[in-house]
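Dear colleague,

Thank you for sharing your sequence with our group. We've completed the structure prediction you requested, and as agreed, I am returning the results in plain text so they can be pasted directly into your records. Please verify that the sequence below matches your submission; if there's any discrepancy, let me know and we will rerun it promptly.
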Amino acid sequence: EVQLVNSGGGSVPPGGSLRLSCAASGFSLNDYSIGWFRQAPGKEREGIACIHSLNGVTYHKDSVKGRFTISRDNAKNTVYLQMDSLNLDDTAVYSCAADEMTCGMGPSAIWGQGTLVTVSS
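Please find the predicted structure tokens below.
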């Protein structure tokens, strides 16, 4: 079965850190571009990071740049999102998505189930 499994969410205080995982089964993430997305309560889903398959080039949205880092471990068939200096605005459900070229933005993207990140004092 082709699927992505998200894990690593939780509740942390402002300034804390989490590492989210996006583990693939049934296919190789090495052949796909992977995007991380988040959806906060009452807001639209937004793409926040991407790692491309061909050259490993990464992209981070300005709002997370310098705090979040996307990376890939091909041996584990897993993509990570390291999140540091978390703030209240980072509270959201985080999901990863994979497709061949558009970092999960295409209509045929494979999606993870999401993991909840709550930042609260």
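Summary note from our side: Residues 82 and 101 are 23 Å apart (CA to CA).

Kind regards,
the structure core
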